[in-house]
Amino acid sequence: MDMGDHSSPGALEAPMLMKVMPMQGALHLEWMNMQSDGDMVEAERKMPEAEFEQVFSVPGTVDNKMDAQATHNMVYTYRLRCKKGDAYSDYSNELSANPTDPE
Amino acid sequence: MNRVGTRLAARTLVLLACTGCGSSPALVAGETDQAPDLSEAVDVNEDPSITEVSLEAREATKSYANGRTTPVWTYNGSVPGPLIEGAVGDELIVHFKNSLPEATTIHWHGVRLPAAMDGTLRMQDPVQPGDSFEYRFPLKDAGLFWFHPHIRSDEQVEKGLYGVLRVRGPDEPEHDHESILVLDDVSVLPDGTLPTYLDDESKMLGRQGNILLVNGQASPTFRWRAGSLERLRIVNVANGRFFNLSLPGYRWRVIGTDGGFVPQPYDTDALLLSPGERYDVMLVVSGDAGDETTLWNEPYERGHDTGKDEPLPVATFRVTDEQPVGGLELPSSFPDIERFEDGPADHELELSEGLEGENLVFTINGATFPDVPLISVPAGSSRIFDVRNTSEMDHPFHLHGTFFQVLSTNGKPTPTASLANRDTVIVPQMTTLKLSARFDEPGGWMYHCHILEHAEGGMMGEVNVEASP
Hints:
With 103 residues, chain A is mainly β.
């Protein structure tokens, strides 16, 4: 995982992904926004043997989202980043879960 | 189903270490060192048997904490709206004007009234911006009731549209002092505004704010005289938050619920109020001048690991240096309550939740409002409901326009001494309550989960009471 350079003046702080957990047969993500004035938070998801692809974006103040498309019996991996204007933060930490695991 | 119940605490720690960061915030305590009295509606009618007031729904600003200015929606400019006072047998007249930019109504939560006055879209047209409506009805029952919109209620109540109606009866218990505690919470963003985006956790649990409020103020201080017999009338007007109240050093003497006094008052360490519920409690102030006690909201597992949340301070009670009082005793009994009709259930209502496409939905018998089948009842009849919660979280069940009694829980009968007239009751997860209600007033009466996001998300139905031929 690319942790980036957080010492650059003006660099955006990446969100901190706290939890990915089964909920209602899908996966629910919770995170903390370390950037108080971000415009958006973008989430990317990776299935086994595949590359990350964007799955949703939410306003920069939001700190949770259910991924209702993640319903198959497999491990899904997520990472987040903050966007402000045209600038992006580094990616967050990554977390994984299988939606068919017990809730 | 899981949820990170301790996330709030973790988030708090991070934010404390990270000045200026954090969007949805740690709980913020205010510095209110005074009792937060409610403003009072002005009764303009000289007839002592009529309470006649004006309410205007309008925009205003409020500072909840830390000097931030928050745009709110109010009745008469305040959050909560003004206290309306009346007595059993009075007529209440409310001249209501909507000065908001969208339509609204006023629902009189817990009040037995004509259906046309109930403020639901089933029974009245919404009051459009700039329009007025006159609510007029007799006050049949003593108790603490509250009022709020019944249109886009999750958003309008969250913005501040709620107020309290206190109706005195002829046989109120003696006490030295009485307080009303209107419990709420609000989410305030760093710029002072309220969130406009409804996130999935708020859909699931109902909006839960980052500031706890009592009578519209954060962390207020109430003052008590030593030895005083205090009466506290408490209502939870929050969208989704449950309040599980403890006051270390004290036990609550519960004397009443939504619908008046209970025959056998009882003592408890924890007082659990779901959204919409009220409790009428008493206690005798102990300690010396200057002693302080914190009112806590203790964790309660209502589903999704909410029981792992941290205890949160709600308010402070401080003993004053005034001359102590004494001599009054806690009440130990009230008149019996007539047990409502019992028997096999006439209707089964299954409360559940699930995903429909990408949306969380909350269902009754597998359907969402307005597709929940109508229940028709002749006026003057009783009906028995099995309300079965098959979801993994508690739902506060609210019935409009009449009281009900919980006759049994999972088949275990409610002892006569524990009967209470209710309009809102927690249906715990994976639990069935048998409820009995009498329907006297013709018209359409809503029933729904009082987590307002659940009601707006579909968990609502209607009883149509047909007038006698």
